[in-house]
Amino acid sequence: MLATMTYPAMKIVLLACVVVPAVAQQAGSIRRLDGSVISASDAQSLASVELKADGVTGAQIAILNHGHLVWSYAYGLRDVAKNLPMTTDTNVWAASITKAVFATWVMRQVEEGKLNLDEPVAKMLPRPLNEYERYEVSGTELMKDPRWAQVTPRMLLSHTSGFANFRELEPDGKIHIHFTPGTRFAYSGEGLNLLQFVLEQTMGITIDHAMAEDIFKPLGMMQTGMVWQPSFDENAGMRYDAKGKLIGPTHRTDSKAAGSMTTSAHDLALFLRALLAKKIVNASTEKEMFTEQIAIHATHQFPPFEVSTGNDGERVGLGYALGWGVLTHTKYGPAFFKEGHGDGAENYAICFERSGDCMIVLTNSDNGELAFRPLAEGLFGDTVTPWIWEGYTREQVLHNEEHTK
Question: Is the pTM higher than 0.70?
Answer without folding.
Answer: yes
